[in-house]
Amino acid sequence: MFEDVDEGHLDGETPVHYYYNREERLSKAPDIVKKYYSGELKPFRGFQALYKNKSNLSILIALIFFVGFTWVYTGINNSRNYAKIDNIIYELQAFSYGEEVYASIKVSSKVPVSNPSPATVEYFFINNDKQLIQKETQSILFTGEEEYLKTKTTDYDIMRVDVIISCNGKEKELSTIIRH
After folding, report:
1. In the sheet that 88-97 helps form, which strands lie side by side, from edge to edge?
2. Do 157 and 88 form a contact (C-beta atoms < 8 A)?
3. How confident is the model over 53-83, as pLDDT tens digits?
4. I need a labelling partner for 41 at 20 to 30 A (CA). Which of 62, 71, 108, 179 fits?
5. Is residue 157 within 8 Å of residue 151, measured between CB atoms?
6. CA–CA separation, 44 vs 28, rounded Å?
C-alpha cells in the first residue's frame, strides 16, 4: 500500500535502509532475552506473579501488612460515629465554631419503615481530662423520612461527644472527636 512512498530522508539524500536480521540481533541480546525467545523462560501469570518473584513477594507482604494495620486501626479507633438499629441508621457529627460546640445526629433508613420507631438520644460532652461537662437528652419518633437531632453547648475545651441511642429496647453508643 505504501511501498512506493519515498520518505525518511531529506531531499537530495539517499534513503537509509534498515536490514533486520533476527539471528544477529538475538546473538547480541542478553541471556534472559535469548531464553525467552527459545521458550525456556516462561513468565509467571496471574496470582503467581505476586509471590514467585522475591521482589514481588516483599511488595505483597508489605501490602498485606498495610491493609491489616489499617483494618486494626479502624477497629480500635475511638471515633465510632455510625450505628444501625433495626435498619435505622444513626450518624453522629460534631464540630466547634466560635465559642460553641455543635452536635447533630442524622437519622435515616435505606429501607421503608412500616411503623414509627421512638428513640431516645443522650449526649455526653467530654473534655480533655475525660470529665463529663454536660449531659443532654432528646427524643425522636422516626417515621422513615431523614431527620436530624441537633444540640449545642458552650465550648469548655470539649474534645469528644459520646451519644447513647436507645431504640426498640436496643442500645448503641456513638462517639466522635470534635473538629476545631
Report:
1. 82-85, 88-97, 100-108, 147-154
2. no
3. 888 889 999 999 999 999 888 777 655 888 8
4. 62
5. no
6. 25
CA torsion sign, 80 to 118 to 123 to 165? negative
pLDDT digits (tens, 9 = 90+) for 87-138: 889 999 999 988 889 999 999 988 888 788 889 999 999 988 889 988 999 9
Model confidence pLDDT, tens digit, residues 2-35: 667 666 677 777 777 767 778 888 888 899 888 8
E-state strands within the chain: 82-85, 88-97, 100-108, 117-127, 132-142, 147-154, 158-167, 170-177
Q: In whole angstroms, give the CA distance from residue 50 to residue 64.
A: 12
Do residues 122 and 141 touch, judged by C-beta distance below 8 A? Answer: no
As a whole number of Å, the end-to-end CA separation of the chain is: 70
Neighbours of 103 (CB within 10 A): 24
Residues, the chain:
180
